[in-house]
Amino acid sequence: MSSLHRRHLAVSPDWLALYYKNPLEITHGEGRHVWDADGRRYLDFFGGILTTMTAHALPEVTKAVSEQAGRIIHSSTLYLNRPMVELAERIATLSGIPDARVFFTTSGTEANDTALLLATTYRRSNQILAMRNSYHGRSFSAVSITGNSAWSPTNLSPLQTLYVHGGVRTRGPYAHLGDAEFIAACVADLEDLLGHTREPAALIAEPIQGVGGFTSPPDGLYAAFRRVLDRHGILWISDEVQTGWGRSGEHFWGWQAHGENGPPDILTFAKGIGNGMSIGGVVARADVMNCLDANSISTFGGSPVTMAAGLANLSYLLEHDLQGNARRVGGLLIERLRAIGAASECVREVRGRGLMIGIELVKPGTDEANPEAAAAVLEAAREGGLLIGKGGGHNTSVLRIAPPLSLTIPEAEEGAEILAEALRSVA
């Protein structure tokens, strides 16, 4: 055990998770690589939990942060803030939400917490619909709508949460159905649920479930839900903390795979927009955003430094078509991983879109989750020089692959080969 690990254990809560038997201290990064305290280089396929979205030490972002810090670091939302207004303008336009208003926070948890405050106030209801296997953050309200017991430590809540089918395509009572039948069954379940309860405030859903193991429904499920929700006046909150900014390759926002009946009423974002800086936020149409009848501010949300980083990062992302790169390189990577998975008895499914890929592991010859194998592959991949994540609603048995969106084809091939060897080592 390293001295830093001992010091960490002495001052940190027991529930603060660390990866690896011998936890890693990352000291610096560049591009798609990071280095540890011993000077070893790793190819980073997890990006600080999908946060270093563009690249480590991206010159455009570090320059913007340095220049803004040299002018002023903090002022709060009590004062006009040019970088905040400029970033809000760009995000409002990109969101697809008409007459959009933007509120900045410091994290995805806080963004979802704000969205819940808006929805419950607007609708005068404390009832929320959420998806099974979901994750929405670690605040008191966010854990109460999280449909994944591994990340929800209490059932105490200011909200009443009802869980809906549909977030996981290949498990559960409807897994055997075709896509159209799957959607119809989930809609029927939602209709039935609404027949037994008071009117909810909103449905909150991740278009692709992140912590849940990069699971997703067939395209169009939330559009079909939207028809039902609209009849009841129920709002739709799209949690884009992990899916936003083009990571899926096919769409800029995850909701666009379900956009037949229009954009969500509320959209939350965080993680990748700051490329490592602490930015979260909420976009909502004006009547929803303006429904609060009390004063509110954000002391650190919209910080001039983080807003400068967000502006520089968003400009780089759009100018270099990183969504297109995620589609092209991610498509090659997922096909390579599917070929590798087909040769392993431990791999149940390789799924995902763009540079958001999950590899679900099971015990050979069964459909039973295999968290031990997932932990072992995580360790073996590190030994091979690759950092990945893990998650999943079935005992944390999914490997999570989410490199920076600037990943190159040679780097994708290198990472796939390391993963192939790691899977062979635990088969």
Overview of the molecule:
The chain has a seven-stranded mixed sheet, sandwiched between helices. Strands 1-2-3-13 form a four-stranded mixed sheet. It has helices at 3-11, 47-50, 59-71, 82-95, 108-123, 140-144, 179-194, 221-232, 286-289, 304-319, 322-342, 371-383, 409-426, and strands at residues 26-30, 33-36, 41-44, 100-105, 127-131, 160-164, 202-205, 235-239, 266-269, 280-285, 347-353, 356-361, 386-387, 389-391, 398-401. The chain is built from 13 helices and 15 strands. The model has no long low-confidence stretch (mean pLDDT 96). It has 427 residues and is an alpha/beta fold.
Produce a short descriptive summary:
38% of the residues lie in helices and 16% in strands. The chain has 427 residues and is α/β, with parallel strands linked by helices.
Please state the average pLDDT score: 96
Alpha plus pi helix count: 13
Strand order of the largest sheet: 4-10-9-8-7-5-6
The residue ranges in which pLDDT falls below 50 over 5 or more consecutive positions are none
Which keywords apply here?
single chain; alpha/beta
Task: Give the arrangement of secondary structure elements.
Layout: H1 3-11, E1 26-30, E2 33-36, E3 41-44, H2 47-50, H3 59-71, H4 82-95, E4 100-105, H5 108-123, E5 127-131, H6 140-144, E6 160-164, H7 179-194, E7 202-205, H8 221-232, E8 235-239, E9 266-269, E10 280-285, H9 286-289, H10 304-319, H11 322-342, E11 347-353, E12 356-361, H12 371-383, E13 386-387, E14 389-391, E15 398-401, H13 409-426
Parallel strand pairs: 3-13, 5-6, 5-7, 7-8, 8-9
Antiparallel strand pairs: 1-2, 2-3, 4-10, 9-10, 11-12, 12-15, 14-15
